[in-house]
Amino acid sequence: LLITIFIDVIGLGIIIPVLPFYVEGFGVSDAVVTILFAMYALLSFLSAPLLGSLSDRIGRRPILVVSIASSAIGWLVFASAKGLWMLFLGRIIDGLAAGNITSAQSALADIAKSDKERTVNMGLFGAVFGVGFIVGPAIGGALSSISTTAPFWFVGILASLNALFAFFFLPETHKTKQADKKISYNPFVPIHDGLKTPAMRKIFATWFIFGIALSLQQSSFSLYLAHTFGMSASTIGLMFGGIGVLILINQLVLLKRVWFKLGTPERLGQIMFVVFGMGMFLQSAPLLFALGIGLVATTFGQGTLRAVYGGLIANAAPEKRGEYIGISSSLMSLSMVVGPLLATLIYKHHPSSPFIVAGCITLVSLAIVPHIVFKNNS
User: Fold this and answer.
1) Half-sphere exposure at residue 4, Cβ-oriented, CA atoms within 13 angstroms
2) Alpha carbons 376 and 378: distance in angstroms, whole number
3) Which among 107, 121, 155, 244 could disulfide-bond with 60, CB atoms 3.0 to 4.6 Å apart, if both were Cys?
4) What pTM does this model have?
């Protein structure tokens, strides 16, 4: 499972540094790059709950195989694009079948023997993401020296091999399939059903607010560093690599040996929201030492919150695990649309505005966290 996720994340990381340059070759504005990212996020928002519910019914393995194969097709269409419409078609195909990450998370939750182990597995999931985003951009940068299309062909081929790997070697982890589970093809039905339960509503609301805060930072981080500190693209790239290393240390070492010893998941969630929010405020200060401390705080905070909330959602109701994880992925995708749009609106007022707003909305989450019940969330 971790190998499958790792290959998938490397593919995502590879295209990050080269996508703008590839799209510019079609003679379009910078706004099209943003729209392409938003298009994928929007379609993921619509498809993830449905695919999550379907994985509860027929199993994780078929959804994983099909979604990874669809991702491969999407990237191969994108790489072979002869016009703008093919770029959008490639992202649409990939977005509509964005069930690979959701199903992989559900499978990691399935194989855990306890609630704590399930939360640790969500931490491992985050660690793989961290490594993937260290390796991926480095490979993408190297391949771009061959041609602007080389990274996308590579990702398409890599995803194709990943689909074959999953088909032949990946076992089914969901042993209690609900064959009679009703599946609605209206993407809003699973979200509506998931929000019916008060405890889950609070969890999902907090998760969505966290996603907006995180995307506010991520979408404006490079511009902020270049504008405020005069950093070059290569320096910013090194900083992203450093963030990946911090994520890896946090998810593999600190999570289990330090953070989980601070108390219950509810308590840890409260602490990490404070750490995450304070890190955002520190990054807004035009001082390098404040930036460094703030970056460490937000990286540890967001990595731990992903594990805690991944555990909360995965442990809530085993019979709805895929559906609930799908909803969480959907809401995170939606936040990745809302956050960058909000950042675009406020960044022009002052480069540090996205970080200040992210810190402020994190405080809103703190009003909800104490009322979340860890046990019997279903």
Assistant:
1) 27
2) 5
3) 107
4) 0.77
Conformation bin of residue 267: beta by default, left when phi > 0, alpha when psi is -120 to 50: alpha
Please, are residues 308 and 265 in contact by the beta-carbon 8 Å criterion? Answer: yes
Nearest to 104 by CA among 166, 22, 185: 166
Which residue type occupies 240? Answer: F
Burial of 265 from C-beta contacts in 10 A (0-12 / 13-18 / 19+): buried
Which range (12-26, 198-212, 345-359) has the least confidence?
Answer: 12-26
Task: Determine the 3-state secondary structure of 328 from DSSP.
Answer: helix
Over residues 165-179, the pLDDT tens digits come to 889 988 888 877 666
Q: Which tokens is 32 given?
A: 């099209």
Instruction: Judge contact between 305 and 276, C-beta under 8 A.
Output: yes
Q: Say which amino acid occupies 204.
A: F
Rounded Cα gap, residues 99 and 84, in angstroms: 25
**Phi–psi pair at 263, nearest 5 degrees:** 140, -165
Q: Which helix (H) or strand (E) holds 200?
A: helix 198-229
CB 242 within 8 A of CB 363: no
Is the separation of the CB atoms in 285 and 291 below 8 Å? yes
Residue 175 is classified by DSSP as -
CA pair distance 353, 336, nearest whole angstrom: 17
The 8-class DSSP code of residue 28 comes to -
CA atoms of 230 and 37, how far apart (whole Å): 26
In this structure, what DSSP letter does residue 197 have? S
- Chain-centroid distance of CA 49 in Å reads 15
Residue with tokens 């509810």: 266
Report the alpha-carbon distance of residue 93 to residue 294 in Å, rounded: 37
